[in-house]
């Protein structure tokens, strides 16, 4: 048998030995209204009164709200309830229940309730609540055969989940599900999706996917937006990782003409990096040294990594030492993107390699451990494995086993 809100309120008042006058003082609801509520004489229990009463009984707050949900059929009121429970941490568990109640109302057209819930969800500040509501929209839309809202819900859910740097592989797989529903997205939504996914793919070394996704978005976007420009550069870098330098240079010619403030600097640095990767060191090294001094802080770490890689290949330990002396000005203080974490991890790895080569074993192990921890921040498994293999190869080459204290330090960093 379903318990009515009036029954719970009456029961709680009696359990707490409260008179109507005392409950009026606690809630601000007049004793006459309280009396009518308990007697079941109110045709519609107003939410403002229910909320005031529920707040007076914090331990039973969620129970009172949930009972109210079962009886309320007014969509506007249910959205008032939803706004309340999304701003009150103790009632977060009620959020999907209120959302489901809204969608199940037979007095409102399915698409209208989906659109209103979708619009409301975009205003919520808590990401976990947003994901909960978008998941509800996706599930309900699938069951009712409304692919338009499956697509919109999947996209918004992906755009939140991709920000978890520890779950980049998993969120990319979730994003791939949106590919089956792109026909139901608006042009603007498609642009955001293709370019965000292209950047995501580059961050997890899926270079083919980065190129394909960027190429899907380019015909849709006519303006040189920051998102388009960054995705285009990610595509160029993907071609570079594939050693397709002809494509790199062709697209750099187009990229340089884009109207965005960071294009000039990133284009010239990318050209220098391309020379380095083509082993044209006589051209690349002077350019990279020049840019290392001139570039903005966001680019310095990437230039430093390229120079360190070149100098290790050439065995120029003195040149490496010069760069390492500038470590404080090269490393970003608060990295926010996977690329920056990976770049810092590589810097620490190169530093460890150098330290081992000059006989600073403890310092070298410490740098490799720091590299492993930094890669771990974005779950960069390939980079972590490469880092560990490089360290082990060095010791095998010298026929020198790792000491137990070093093994323990590396094992902790690898977790």
Q: Main attributes?
A:
single chain, 415 residues, mainly alpha, 24 helices, 0% strand, elongated
Description:
This protein is mostly helical. The chain contains 24 helices and no strands. α14 runs parallel beside α16, α16 packs antiparallel against α17 and α18 packs parallel to α21. The longest helix has 20 residues. It is elongated, with a radius of gyration of 29 Å. The model has no long low-confidence stretch (mean pLDDT 89).
Topology of this structure?
Blueprint: H1 5-15, H2 20-27, H3 31-39, H4 47-56, H5 61-71, H6 75-86, H7 95-104, H8 110-121, H9 127-144, H10 147-161, H11 168-178, H12 187-203, H13 207-217, H14 226-241, H15 245-255, H16 263-277, H17 281-294, H18 297-314, H19 317-324, H20 327-330, H21 338-357, H22 361-376, H23 381-397, H24 404-414
Helix pairs in contact: 2-3, 4-5, 6-7, 7-8, 7-9, 8-9, 9-10, 10-11, 11-12, 12-13, 12-14, 13-14, 14-15, 14-16, 15-16, 16-17, 16-18, 17-18, 18-19, 18-21, 21-22, 21-23, 22-23, 22-24
């Amino acid at each position: 048998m379903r318990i009515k809100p009036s029954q719970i309120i009456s029961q709680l008042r009696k359990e707490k030995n409260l008179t109507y006058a005392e409950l009026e003082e606690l809630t601000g609801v007049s004793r006459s209204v309280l009396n009518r509520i308990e007697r079941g004489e109110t045709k519609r229990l107003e939410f403002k009164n229910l909320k005031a009463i529920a707040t007076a009984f914090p331990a039973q707050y969620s129970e009172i709200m949930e009972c109210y949900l079962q009886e309320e059929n007014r969509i506007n009121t249910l959205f008032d309830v939803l706004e309340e429970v999304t701003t009150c941490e103790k009632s977060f568990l009620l959020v999907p229940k209120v959302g489901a109640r809204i969608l199940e109302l037979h007095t409102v057209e399915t698409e209208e309730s989906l659109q209103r819930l979708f619009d409301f969800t975009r205003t919520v500040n808590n990401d976990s609540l947003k994901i909960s509501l978008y998941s509800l929209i996706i599930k309900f839309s699938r069951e009712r055969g409304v692919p338009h809202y499956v697509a919109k819900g999947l996209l918004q859910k992906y755009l939140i989940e991709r920000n978890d740097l520890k779950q980049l592989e998993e969120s990319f797989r979730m994003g791939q599900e949106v590919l089956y529903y792109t026909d139901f997205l608006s042009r603007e939504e498609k642009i955001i999706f293709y370019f965000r996914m292209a950047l995501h793919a580059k961050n997890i070394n899926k270079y083919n996917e980065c190129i394909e996704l960027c190429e899907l978005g380019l015909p849709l976007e006519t303006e040189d937006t920051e998102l388009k420009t960054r995705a285009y550069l990610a595509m160029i870098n993907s071609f570079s990782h594939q050693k397709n330098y002809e494509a790199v240079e062709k697209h750099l010619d187009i990229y340089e003409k884009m109207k965005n403030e960071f294009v000039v600097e990133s284009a010239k640095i990318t050209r220098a990096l391309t020379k380095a990767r083509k082993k044209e060191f006589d051209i690349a090294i002077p350019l990279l040294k020049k840019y290392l001094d001139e570039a903005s802080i966001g680019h310095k770490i990437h230039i430093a990594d390229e120079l360190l890689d070149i100098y290790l290949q050439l065995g120029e330990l003195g040149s490496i030492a010069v760069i390492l002396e500038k470590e404080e000005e090269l490393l970003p203080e608060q990295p926010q993107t996977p690329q920056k974490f990976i770049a810092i991890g590589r810097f620490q790895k190169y530093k460890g390699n150098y330290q081992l080569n000059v006989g600073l074993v403890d310092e070298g192990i410490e740098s490799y451990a720091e590299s492993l921890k930094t890669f771990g921040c974005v779950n960069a498994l390939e980079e972590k494995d490469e880092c560990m293999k490089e360290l082990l190869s060095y010791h095998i080459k010298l026929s020198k086993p790792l000491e137990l204290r070093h093994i323990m330090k590396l094992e902790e960093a690898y977790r």
